[in-house]
């Protein structure tokens, strides 16, 4: 090393690079500048007096990437501090360890910035989305001024090309790499349908369930009036007392009581009065359900032609009339007439499901069916509590007030969900098809739907019949065991009427909680799996109830029972609501409600017979095993999409 090379020249000589070449990883580029101890002339390879600005090499040295940085000429007087001494201010002037000053920002041109590298997955996602820069101002470093940009990997380039071919979705043009379907804005009239249906159904169920805790006492009062002997009644002065019965004997009640007694003797039921009262009440409930079975499809067919709203108002008016007859009744015959009018007019439940089925999107239908189930749970929880807390004389008038409030509420707030262009062409055609539903076999085959205009396809009709059979079997077994539950807890645990009321309150509260949290979040397409799981839970539930000898076992069985009851009916209703044209939704849902009413009319009679003939354990064990039938039917049911593709 010669004297003129300086310390910087010696380093370049040892590294095999020409003087002025930038070392890789250095803080800044080397330019032709002075050495550490010499003046401007010492920077020119040891030759004194040579201008440093003329020493820009023609080509980059080895070890430097081509084209990354341009060389900028050194400023005159570079390499000297303020006092004129050289080699003392290389760090102050930014020359780095090798002694060469960095170029000024004005000489380098505009500075590009590279961001801190994010993770590999985030880099590919952003590159595919076309977001461009990932820069974070607080974590950047200067780059070269010659238009250099980081090159994308081949996979990133392919991802960006795929995204460029897609339509702009997500947050904006190029804002998301995940394609989304266009969002269908729900009309304002549809958005208020579900809350109106919920409140209307809740008012109706509160009025209906007010009677349930009073039914045993009401039937007992009619029984006492029927068997009470004539008693002397005081008359005026000088007249003999007259033997006048306090209440005239009711022949209709006597005929019903004899029928119940013969049936109890046939199945071997004990002659205890409490059991007879439960069986008598079950017979009245079966009559109500049988009338629903006859009239629900007719109500649905009428709504397909006339619209949902007018038929709903007519149904609610009939229910208000039934409560008015009940409030003014003084005999068992008048009470029975009120129950008959109520059973014929009880088509509002099937109309509520048809209104929800008219909604456009499957998620809205699923939420609507879950809300209907929640209304049932709340109604059957709060109604009996109100009926027990209030005086017996005021309960019928309260039910009448709730029915009138429901009628006024629907008149003011319920919109029409079935447009006129989608309605059935003829009311006669709908009634002719609904007349087929008087036959249980035609009911299970959905004959009114198959013979209507624009029926479902062959695969769709097969799935509909499959779901109808599952619905009927489930409610047949479930309603029967639910009816015999009162016999079991009184016979095994000596539950009083108040304790049974608390038990049913626990069941209703659990069902309402599950339907408000879990059932309403079941997404469309997952209902079949949810129903299978719930039906499978009923097997251990009823085994625990039938065989358990302790209250914890009974409580666990009732908890599983409540969970299944909260899930099965709303999910099956949501699945059935997706079948049929808009002009057939009322007939479809009316047929489903008719199947349920038939199951509730026959199930309690069959279960009570099995309970008293074979015993509680045998009854609950056999019925628990029979729940595997609807489970296996659902297991073999293929989704409609796959069935349609197979066709």
From TrEMBL:
Location, primary (coarse class): membrane
GO biological process, one term: apoptotic process
Residues of the Major facilitator superfamily (MFS) profile domain: 193-642
Membrane topology qualifier: Multi-pass membrane protein
UniProt biased composition (Gly residues): 35-48
GO cellular component term, pick one: nuclear inner membrane
Name of a matching Pfam family: MFS_1
Functional description taken from the UniProt entry: Probable organic anion transporter which may serve as a transporter for some non-steroidal anti-inflammatory drugs (NSAIDs) as well as other organic anions across the luminal membranes of renal proximal tubules at the final excretion step into the urine.
Gene Ontology MF term list: transmembrane transporter activity
Organism: Galemys pyrenaicus (Iberian desman)
Protein name: Major facilitator superfamily domain-containing protein 10
UniProt-annotated location(s): Cell membrane; Nucleus inner membrane
């Amino acid at each position: 090393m010669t004297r003129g090379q300086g310390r910087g020249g010696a380093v370049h000589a040892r590294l095999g690079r020409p003087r002025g070449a930038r070392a890789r990883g250095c803080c800044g580029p080397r330019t032709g500048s002075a050495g550490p101890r010499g003046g401007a002339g010492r920077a020119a390879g040891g030759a004194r007096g040579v201008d440093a600005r003329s020493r820009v090499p023609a080509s980059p040295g080895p070890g430097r990437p081509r084209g990354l940085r341009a060389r900028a000429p050194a400023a005159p007087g570079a390499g000297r501090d303020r006092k004129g001494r050289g080699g003392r201010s290389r760090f102050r002037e930014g020359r780095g360890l090798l002694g060469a000053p960095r170029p000024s920002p004005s000489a380098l041109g505009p500075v590009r910035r590279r961001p801190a590298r994010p993770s590999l997955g985030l880099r590919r996602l952003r590159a595919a989305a076309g977001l461009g820069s990932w820069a974070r101002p607080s974590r950047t470093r200067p780059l070269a001024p010659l238009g250099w940009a980081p090159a994308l990997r081949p996979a990133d380039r392919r991802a960006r090309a795929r995204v460029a071919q897609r339509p702009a979705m997500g947050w904006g043009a190029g804002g998301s790499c995940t394609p989304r379907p266009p969002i269908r804005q729900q009309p304002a009239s549809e958005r208020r349908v579900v809350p109106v249906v919920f409140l209307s159904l809740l008012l109706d169920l509160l009025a209906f369930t007010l009677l349930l805790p009073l039914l045993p006492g009401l039937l007992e009062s009619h029984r006492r009036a029927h068997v009470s002997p004539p008693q002397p009644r005081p008359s005026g002065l000088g007249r003999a007392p007259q033997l006048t019965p306090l209440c005239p004997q009711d022949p209709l009640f006597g005929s019903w009581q004899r029928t119940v007694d013969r049936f109890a003797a046939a199945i071997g039921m004990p002659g205890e009065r409490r059991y007879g009262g439960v069986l008598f009440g079950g017979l009245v409930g079966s009559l109500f359900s049988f009338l629903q079975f006859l009239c629900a499809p007719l109500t649905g067919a009428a709504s397909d032609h006339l619209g949902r709203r007018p038929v709903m108002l007519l149904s609610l008016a009939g229910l208000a009339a039934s409560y008015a007859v009940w409030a003014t009744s003084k005999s068992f015959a008048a009470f029975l007439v009120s129950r008959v009018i109520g059973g014929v007019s009880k088509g509002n439940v099937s109309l509520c499901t048809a209104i929800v089925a008219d909604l456009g999107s499957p998620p809205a239908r699923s939420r609507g069916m879950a809300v209907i189930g929640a209304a049932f749970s709340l109604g059957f929880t709060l109604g009996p509590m109100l009926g027990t807390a209030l005086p017996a004389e005021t309960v019928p008038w309260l039910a009448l007030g709730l029915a009138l409030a429901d009628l006024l509420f629907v008149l003011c707030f319920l919109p029409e969900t079935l447009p006129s262009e989608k309605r059935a062409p003829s009311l006669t055609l709908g009634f002719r098809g609904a007349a087929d539903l008087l036959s249980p076999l035609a009911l299970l085959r959905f004959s009114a739907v198959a013979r209507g205009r624009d029926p479902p396809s062959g695969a769709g009709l097969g799935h509909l019949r499959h779901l109808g059979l599952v619905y009927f079997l489930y409610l047949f077994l479930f309603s029967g065991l639910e009816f015999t539950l009162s016999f079991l807890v009184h016979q095994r645990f000596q539950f009083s009427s108040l304790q049974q009321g608390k038990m049913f309150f626990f069941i209703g509260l659990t069902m309402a909680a599950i339907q408000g949290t879990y059932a309403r979040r079941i997404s469309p397409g997952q209902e079949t799996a949810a129903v299978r799981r719930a039906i499978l839970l009923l097997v251990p539930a009823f085994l625990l109830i039938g065989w358990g000898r302790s209250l914890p076992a009974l409580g666990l069985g009732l908890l599983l029972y409540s969970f299944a009851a909260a899930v099965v009916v709303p999910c099956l209703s949501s699945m059935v609501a997706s079948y049929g044209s808009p002009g057939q939704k009322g007939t479809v849902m009316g047929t489903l409600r008719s199947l349920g009413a038939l199951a509730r009319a026959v199930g309690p009679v069959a279960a009570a017979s099995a309970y008293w003939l074979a015993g509680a354990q045998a009854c609950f064990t056999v019925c628990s095993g029979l729940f595997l039938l609807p489970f296996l039917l659902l297991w073999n049911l293929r989704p409609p999409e796959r069935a349609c593709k197979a066709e």
